[in-house]
Amino acid sequence: MAFKSIELFAGAGGLALGLEQAGFEHIGLVEFDRSAADTLIHNRPSWNVLCEDVEIVAARDLETEFGIKKGELDLLSGGAPCQSFSYAGKRLGLDDVRGTMFYHYATFLHKLQPKMFLFENVRGLLTHDKGRTYETIRNIFNDEGYTIQYQVLNAWDYGVPQKRERLITIGIRNDLVEKCSFNYPAKHDYKPLLKDIELETNPTECGKYSEYKANIFALVPPGGYWRDIDPDIAKEYMKTCWFMGGGRTGILRRLSLEEPSLTVLTTPQMKQTDRCHPLEVRPFSVRENARIQTFPDDWEFQGTIGAKYRQVGNAVPCNLAKEIGLECIKTLEML
């Protein structure tokens, strides 16, 4: 019997695909962005994809909407965008977070009471608003009847050739905690590098540097950054950034085959977070970024090239999602 899940803020499907690979059957996915929803529909025509505002969906009768009774859903998954809460710390329950994306996630939890939930977010949520944001989130999870645990996982430890940290919060409904337990996945022995993925030659979907920028990046060795070129050239390129404090190691950064990718971002080029290709003077292509995020090559992204970069950059790496999903299934199999 397949375990059933619903996913919110599904994006282009990194988390959903990994959970499917682990053995979950998605009975609903909610994604507001048209291009991302089109990607889900294109790759999985059988999935029940709702390209709607999650606020509108959350207001409906969810048991009727998804054909499942309260308490029967195995897993609610997704990660709401990080937002400040105006009443953080006052313990008003759901009213603390009314009007935020998290409120709609909590509404799904309240209405459907799934056996488990998986809430993923950026590591920075731990310290957002001096920790008050995540404290409010944890309090609401507790108030809704869940025992939670949380841990920051680095995708590089789970078969992903990329340094990418995610805060993974797992909740188990209180009436089930005596019968089951959840363990975070064990780290892999081998941590993959960029040399482990296939890089493209003459990619069709790829950002492009200006001639000026390309000429400067041509001077940077693989694994290097602005300190590895003539300081006068670096100073002219960096302009005001030259006088900033810190290492500024993201500027004119060229990756090497002998290292993992830095966190894949939503745009292929920004001055302070450049990731130049190790073999060619260009950004990584859409498909190369997708491979770094461990999407299979037959997963085809829809929309403009900008939309595709954004979908890939926002995704949870599939391999990380699968590892977490396998542990969720072990938990559910105890019931």
From TrEMBL:
Keyword Methyltransferase listed? The answer is yes
Tell me the Gene3D superfamilies matching this sequence.
DNA Methylase, subunit A, domain 2, Vaccinia Virus protein VP39
Instruction: Return the InterPro entries for the record.
Output: C5-Methyltransferase, C5_DNA_meth_AS, C5_MeTfrase, SAM-dependent_MTases_sf
Q: Which reaction does it catalyse?
A: a 2'-deoxycytidine in DNA + S-adenosyl-L-methionine = a 5-methyl-2'-deoxycytidine in DNA + S-adenosyl-L-homocysteine + H(+)
KW Protease (keyword) present: no
| Stored CDD domains | Cyt_C5_DNA_methylase
A Gene Ontology biological process in which this protein takes part is: negative regulation of gene expression via chromosomal CpG island methylation
Active-site residue list:
C82
Q: What is the name of the protein in this document?
A: Cytosine-specific methyltransferase
